[in-house]
Amino acid sequence: MSDDQERQGEVPDPHGYPPPVPASAPVDPSWAPPSGPLPPAPSYPWADYARPRPPQDAAAPGSHSSGRRPQGRRLGIGSALLVLLLGLGGGFGGSALYDGLADNEAAGPYAGGLEDVETVELPPVKIGGVQAVAKELLPSTVQIVAELEGQAGGATGSGFVLDKQGHIVTNNHVVASAAQDGGTIQVVDFGGTTYDAELVGRSAVYDLAVLLVPGATDLPPAALGRSEKLRVGDGVVAFGSPLGLTSTVTAGIVSALRRPVTTGSPVDDSSYINAVQTDAAINPGNSGGPLVNLRGQVVGVNSAIATNGGASGEAGNIGVGFAIPVEQVRITADQILKTGEARYPVIGAQVRTQGETIGSGARISEVNSNTPAQAAGLEAGDVVIEVDGLRVTDGIGLIVNIRSHQPGEELEFTYLRNGEQRTTTIELGSETG
User: Fold this and answer.
1) 400: which DSSP letter?
2) What distance in Å separates the CA atoms of residue 224 and residue 324, rounded to the nearest whole number?
3) What is the DSSP letter of 106?
4) Of 118, 192, 265, 393, which is the most exposed, with the fewest CB atoms less than 10 Å away?
5) 287 is an active site residue
6) How many CB atoms lie within 10 A of CB 128?
7) Cα angle at 220 between 132 and 217, to 5 degrees?
8) Short-list 258, 269, 267, CA closest to 95
């Protein structure tokens, strides 16, 4: 989870599950939704941890709209948490699903992406439980220390070794301030050795970053698994440096899959995450650390926690944490290694993300000119209720669904126009971010 910036968002669910509690903390599909009618997710009477805001247009990554989400409370010990908020208050925000197509790709260090570096796939643990997993993964887990608004070491988080070339995966929000200001980023390994790190590339949209530590090629890479093989109830282990306590291990289960989580703050773009939810203890400082299955394979990147706030304003673990699925980590890391930047799919429309009844679908508020959405015949006022057979209950669910695919894919959209159900096929566009 994050320790460098305050962020805020909402956690509705396109599959009818109850949304998580109001959340905080900076933190991506083979699971099939349940059959039959799905009830709308209930709301919860949590405290006003972040104050309601009036109607506005909140811009998502890649949009030039000026609206922004309000900032949450800053935590102590030099850390800040992303706030994930259930829709408290009124109004609606519009999130951009498109902002044009980029034609040129930047040059990255490896033309073949992940194929050109030495990653590990085989599970290191057969039998042994949490103790065996901890023994294998701790040497592959690192602490990240980065400048925050000019303050050395103001941002701390976690990460894991991606390959034998010395690349490290972490959250974008851990290093975003240092990246923007040219600040120092350092990596501390399991043995306590500190290395200077270089930023290879980052994605605000998926809240991921790839670092390079040239002098750490002897660090063992973590084995990469598949979150798509997870089932609710499976055991998982979280690694990281919560509250500055390096090499911390916590264990729990998979609480939910494909949980839509949106994050954002006034100082950066929003991130929409199709998250793995877990009750393994995650706290500030865990951001960017690996979530691992009981075979010792990384299945996600710890990125956010839910919290009810509390009178003190401090946020901590209440058993509701979120991790970015490792499938998205593979895709984003591959893009960054190839080109130095990451891309995400877009359709070319604005969608309401607040003020709509969960379960009613995603209402399109605007369709941009010369975009995939316009070419497919979508219009303002249309309500998207399904994408490629997967039910959509609200705007955030639609964004998360789209961003779990790749640019160039063709998806079938089912939508309502004046009460009449229609379908259309959209080829996803592309944007950098």
Assistant:
1) H
2) 13
3) P
4) 192
5) yes
6) 15
7) 170
8) 269
Dihedral angle computed from the Cα positions of residues 156, 162, 163 and 164, in that order, rounded to the nearest 10 degrees: 30
The helix (H) or strand (E) run that includes residue 425 is: strand 420-427
pLDDT digits (tens, 9 = 90+) for 80-124: 333 332 222 222 344 444 443 334 455 677 888 898 899 999 999
Q: Is the dihedral of CA 44, 49, 54, 55 positive or negative?
A: negative
347's tokens: 């359709």
What's the rounded Cα separation, in Å, for the pair 127 and 296?
Answer: 10
The separation between CA 161 and the C-alpha centre of its own chain, rounded to angstroms, equals 19
Element (H, E) at 144: strand 141-148
The residue from 173, 177, 241, 394 that is catalytic is 173
Residue with tokens 């009178």: 311
Q: Are 283 and 316 in contact (CB under 8 A)?
A: yes
With tokens 């990240």, the residue in question is 144
- Select which of 287, 365, 404, 430 is catalytic: 287
Catalytic residue among 207, 269, 279, 394: 207
Gyration radius of the chain over CA positions: 20
Contacts of 418 (CB under 8 A, 6+ apart): none
Which domains, and CATH codes, for the chain? 113-124+134-222+335-339 (2.40.10.10)
SS3 326: helix
Residue 82: Cβ-neighbour burial (10 angstroms; 0-12, 13-18, 19+): buried
pLDDT digits (tens, 9 = 90+) for 40-91: 333 222 222 222 222 233 333 333 233 332 222 222 223 333 333 222 222 2
Q: Helix, strand, or coil here: 432?
A: strand
Q: List the structure tokens of 423.
A: 């379908």
- Per-residue pLDDT at 153: 85
Give the amino acid at 210: V
Q: Which of 4, 376, 333 is nearest to 157 (CA)?
A: 4
Q: Which two tokens stand for residue 287?
A: 């951001």
